[in-house]
């Protein structure tokens, strides 16, 4: 039976074929979801790119594949993809596959909605506005606006655009011509999207002044002041500071109160990239890390990171109620007709840069419902507690060296010094040798498929591991296991 | 039983709870998918925003919802959302829920991958590169590069950024300061994202010169030449033309060969926004509409539009092999480490502006596999044939007036003149009266839930309907039904 009969648009295809196919796919993904979380399963099944290309039947044929061939395609895709759901996938700022979130995605996929007008997406329009209002309230604002964004990078780009528009509204129509050189500030450990988006928006990467960080990764406020003065003395016009709440590598929280003071004094837009660390706002015990965030003009906060919503769920929030609409609107008369029969203030699409836009709210809303606000807090608290347990454990353990003694977030950065190198510390080529350890250990863990933790250099630090937690089902036994596994992988180096 | 036990991160929750929940959700979405396509089901179930807000239990509680409450949330969401899958949802440039595509989304959701490095997304990295290469080949290029984009608007933004970088590579680092005023050109019927993105990128909306269109919606090439000269005489520096292949409202194809000639002569970047019309490239009979697209520097092409892949599946293609990397790269050392054990040219994330990025390729790849290339062609051919059938049918029908006599794409724009107005044509207030007809009929169709077709004004045309086809399961009987339904909805006006 050709697979073309499965499709809704093969009019001749019997409906039960489709149902049988969809049912089989549902079974296989459910089995996969169950398997993937098991600690005795593989995190990944490493195959070199050249070989994987040969294993997978990627090319298209002129004629339809059969249903069995499609099922094979799906099986191969599941087999050779990385198990993000595995407890020992600790590689990135996202992990786990939350089951309620997953169910939420299945629902929105089935609806295939695009969120721009109330008439085509009534439920999700109301849901977005409610969730964004709730998040703003948690940030500490009594009014404002917000949007769901295709990732934190684009959300940070929205911040730059709004900050510029706030100071120079004519940029929207006239562009940057005739304006002085605009300068913005962020720390040298801020996410790379800040410079990417400054490049896109015509600001230029060189006009993002990189403020020094201290040894824990936090923005050096004294240096920020100096850099603002330097920009002015060079004829630049400062317009925004982008602080970070939870840096990508070290998980550092910039001192938001101090930065807010400076922004206030210098009349600069104050943006906080809390894509990663925003989740800590849910915790009574941890939200002090973001103290001062209520003074920000805008915030990036990705529930798909610390709150473990499925990819992708990113938000951009601002305390200014109308600026998104004013800065972004194009009033397309084919989509945002004003003579509709309902209140068209519910047609929220024009405040976005995207036109068609997937539903990213529902999975998160459903998770929040399922756990309750207290459940999200408990989730965050567990992550931090577990990070402290892990940090305490490796602090005294032979061979482990913390990059910062007291990590602020659930990122734990450390070197593993194999036995053969332990006597060489202080010698001139020690750093160079240590720099090679993490890549070698990473290769071993990838080839064996037992775990995934990333590594990177930073400033003058040689390569170190960054373990990062968003999965609150991890236990102390898991942490103990991870330590032992690192030791095993480092054996003989 | 509290729903928190369902979640993977409620470590104490019994696994079978999760499985039972996921199984129930699978059942309900499968039933919904079956129902939604039935012609005797409702397209939508209209509820005013204020009332819907009361019906839906949107607010969060502190404590977890029960599994039954979650199931109710899901049922309500399905119930009050619009049935995009319904054959009579003809409102936008997307429609239908392709079942293979849907299955593909269920698979990628279950994997929850982010596509930026080979190590975390091996299958999807290879798949993206293969699909994009295939699409470039269909455009007519032997080399180049491409990326999946979160929608056509952002893809058009990529084009502007690359065009500018191509002419002035220093913009990436230095920004627009010190550069002359850059000017770009697009038609007055181009998608609004062109001006939105020009605003974002510091070009300014006023520096997008809007070229006149002819009565069929195609760019007036004579006027383009004049506008280029005008820009130069005003001290502006032209750098790109964004042509449209399939405009949003009328479905017009700009004369790409002529525009290519001008771009060649004037050394301008030639972009084609084929987000909508790109699908016609799959058809031997229809690809002539895009004749000259192989001479473009870049193309936006959204498979989620004419090819009916699920939302969201947008691509940006360029014939320049290295420019995406050169223009966008930030070389973040925490993610794109160069000392990895595999060939890091497979880490494709740095050529994107997004960092974390959902998998949009798989659903489309699986659909293409399932239909075969010939099946995609057949799909496109059916859409055009059905559009011609509908156009022919209403051409002679009392009360129907075509906005353009021979629509180029599967958009059919028409007025419905109710019997009471038919004798008034030519009178001074006829247009004003006609302008009110479509909104009233739209309200009726929404309240009854029998169909969804959008309407809009355009230039000096009063409101007219635009029916648009991407659903190749529609039959001639459906077309006949739609005509009768329009007549029924217009009764008594």
Automatic annotation (TrEMBL), chains A, B:
| GO annotations of cellular component type | cytoplasm
Q: Origin, by domain of life?
A: Eukaryota
Instruction: Report the cofactors.
Output: pyridoxal 5'-phosphate
**What are the UniProt keywords, alphabetically?**
Decarboxylase, Lyase, Pyridoxal phosphate
* Claim: Lyase is one of the keywords in the record: yes
Q: Which GO terms describe its biological process?
A: carboxylic acid metabolic process
Q: Name one GO molecular function term.
A: carboxy-lyase activity
Q: Which residues carry this modification: N6-(pyridoxal phosphate)lysine?
A: 305
InterPro entries in the record: PyrdxlP-dep_de-COase, PyrdxlP-dep_Trfase, PyrdxlP-dep_Trfase_major
PANTHER family xrefs: BLACK, ISOFORM A, GLUTAMATE DECARBOXYLASE-RELATED
Assembly mode:
Homodimer.
Its family remark reads: Belongs to the group II decarboxylase family.
Please report the name of this protein according to its UniProt entry: Black
Organism of derivation = Nezara viridula (Southern green stink bug)
Q: Output the lineage of the source organism.
A: Eukaryota, Metazoa, Ecdysozoa, Arthropoda, Hexapoda
